[in-house]
Design a protein that fits this description.
The protein is α/β, with parallel strands linked by helices and 570 residues long. It has 19 helices and 18 strands. Strands 1, 2, 3, 4, 5 and 13 form a six-stranded mixed beta sheet that branches. A four-stranded mixed beta sheet has the order 7-10-6-11, with helices on both faces. Strands 8-9 form a two-stranded antiparallel sheet. A hairpin with a 2-residue loop joins β16 and β17. α10 crosses α17 and α17 runs antiparallel to α18. The longest helix has 27 residues.
Length: 570
């Protein structure tokens, strides 16, 4: 079929909202590239973002953008690739297995040759500070086909945030729990006392949460059992690397003891009896009522609107136990973030697009301050190239987010203010972003609708200082940050870096193995905790069941991918 008839075909199948892409066009003012992006409802309209006006003026680069909803992206992406009508640039929505496949086919371009001090000095500067970064982008064939930004904000590098009612803990124990035994005593105290003082000693829920499954670390953030799991020496619910060696935690001896403890909590009704059955809205409704003694969530105030209630909660340092005397918490040194930046063979000037990518990573050492860099605390990175952009509704009078309050003539009430605070004997600085609250429901709403596209790769050091408000403002963001820094950051332990790639064949095999393993492990773990199955009597059969479902091969694939990126353990 000729190119002439393809638009008609695409219209008939009602898949594209616009009919394909042409090669990048150049005129007197610069070059236009085609872009397909996976977006969600909160992303805002990219065509209205000041960012695109900015790069056209400063870099001479413009885009014809096709924004595709996350629900439709899979279909549209596949059709674009199948009909040879894909864009110069993809942003997001493509799996690592697909990238490996299309990279080997030559559809997605290898980008490592464009990453050097001459073409991409900002990316090179970041890579010099974090040598594992570029390595984490490499596929098994040695090429880099997609590029992400890096998350460096320590507050965001935890895989889980744990909240306990400080007022109740001090009343029951006289202090916050430090061991698993003390945590158990705290939960018992919540159950047996009328802690919220409403005259009903039965309405409190000692530990709230809902079952999120065992495999897949992305759910760690919301697993209320992570504080208990860490007390047994694990920071991953499924696969974890111990000194570089992969192991499947659910079949380890300490995990058996963890299940016994969980069964004890469930039997004594110290964990929500609806833990395995309730939906998210049921769980959050209980949080909002202030009856929960401990829980895991992104923030203590996220689902509790009453400030008098959420301020009772704070985080807690990791627990130790007779099974583990080391305080550990799931966290990372850095992680990749943002959607993928994938340049295709349709692009006639990949170096030009890499120039734009480097612009997003811009780091001028003369304009940045690094505080406590040895411990990876880069919250104070800032410079004139910070990606955040302020503009009024018309799109006029725009500028990068580099102006302090009072210095922008058009909007003196918008901007940033730096605040110093003391923690652990050190002085740190954070920036509070000030925006029109009457027009935007929250900071994220403001950021996503008027600034750099949220899905673009970006460096969190630029983002972090405006997404974290100063401690001494007493606001919710500041309280969240203070808690994470005091109770969790010092104990970060990286059980699974996740920054390594699988071949397409390995990804396919893992998908098959995970499907069978996950359903079996989730089912058995649930039965063990509820007490439907005896842990002591059925443990050996459970281990054999995992073995018969390919757990050894599952671990082997992860070990192979890990060794490719980090080298085999000695």
């Amino acid at each position: 079929m000729t190119r002439k008839f393809l638009p008609l075909l695409l219209a008939l199948v009602l898949v594209f909202s616009c009919v394909g892409f042409s090669a990048g066009a150049e005129d007197a003012d610069g070059k236009t590239y085609t872009l397909m992006a996976s977006v969600n409802a909160s992303s805002g309209n990219w065509d209205d973002l000041w960012f695109f006006q900015s790069i056209e003026e400063e870099l001479g680069i413009r885009f014809e953008i096709e924004q595709v909803s996350e629900a439709s992206f899979e279909e549209k992406k596949n059709l674009a690739l199948a009909t040879n009508m894909y864009p110069d640039l993809f942003i997001g929505g493509i799996s690592s297995a697909e990238i490996a496949t299309y990279g080997e086919m030559g559809v997605f371009l290898p980008l490592e040759d464009y990453i050097n001090w001459e073409n991409t000095p900002a990316i090179m500067a970041w890579s010099e500070m974090y040598p594992d970064y570029l390595n984490s982008l490499k596929y098994p064939d040695g090429h880099i086909y997609d590029i992400h930004g890096m998350q460096l904000s320590s507050r965001e590098l935890t895989d889980c945030r744990y909240w306990i009612n400080h007022e109740w803990a001090n009343e029951i124990l006289g202090h916050l729990p430090t061991t698993l035994d003390e945590y158990y005593a705290y939960l018992k105290g919540v159950k047996e006392g009328d802690m919220n003082g409403n005259g009903d000693a039965t309405d409190e829920i000692p530990m709230g949460g809902r079952f999120r499954g065992v495999m897949g670390s992305s759910e760690n953030y919301y697993d209320c059992t992570i504080p208990i799991l860490a007390a047994f020496g694990y920071t991953e619910r499924g696969l974890e690397f111990m000194d570089g060696t992969a192991q499947f935690n659910p079949i380890q001896d300490n995990y058996k003891e963890y299940l016994k403890f969980m069964n004890k909590l469930f039997t004594e009704e110290l964990i929500d009896p609806e833990y395995f059955t309730q939906a998210q809205d049921q769980f959050t409704a209980k949080l909002a009522s202030g009856v929960t003694g401990a829980f895991v969530d992104f923030a203590h105030w996220l689902n509790i609107s009453d400030e008098n209630i959420w301020r009772q909660y704070g985080s807690n340092a990791p627990l130790t136990s007779q099974y583990n005397d080391q305080q550990i918490w799931p966290g990372h040194e850095f992680s990749v973030q943002g959607q993928q930046w994938i340049i295709t063979d349709k692009c006639d000037d990949p170096q030009d697009l890499m120039r734009l990518l480097d612009y997003l990573f811009t780091l001028n050492p003369d304009e940045y301050e690094i505080v406590n860099a040895e411990t990876s605390e880069h919250e104070t990175f800032f410079g004139e190239y910070a990606q955040y952009v302020l503009r009024d509704d018309s799109g006029d009078f725009s500028q990068r987010f580099g102006a302090q309050l009072g210095t922008w003539e058009e909007h003196p009430e918008w901007g940033w203010e730096m605040t110093e605070y003391e923690t652990n004997g050190e002085t740190r600085q954070l920036v509070n972003i000030v925006y029109p609250t009457e027009e935007y429901t929250n900071r994220n709403d403001f950021v996503r609708k008027v600034m750099t596209p949220w899905a673009f790769p970006y460096m969190s050091a630029n983002q972090a200082i405006v997404s974290v408000n100063a401690f001494d403002t007493g606001n919710a963001e500041g309280e969240l940050t203070a808690n994470v820094f005091e109770y969790l950051v010092p104990y970060y332990h990286e059980g699974n870096p996740g920054n390594f790639k699988f071949t397409a064949a390995e990804s396919d095999e893992l998908s098959l193995l995970e499907s069978d393993l996950a359903s079996y492990v989730d089912q058995m773990v649930s039965k063990f905790i509820i007490g439907d199955v005896s842990i002591d009597n059925e443990w050996d059969n459970f281990v054999k069941g995992c073995e018969s479902r390919g757990i050894s091969r599952y671990v082997e694939i992860y070990q192979t991918a890990y060794d490719r990126s980090y080298g085999a353990a000695e």
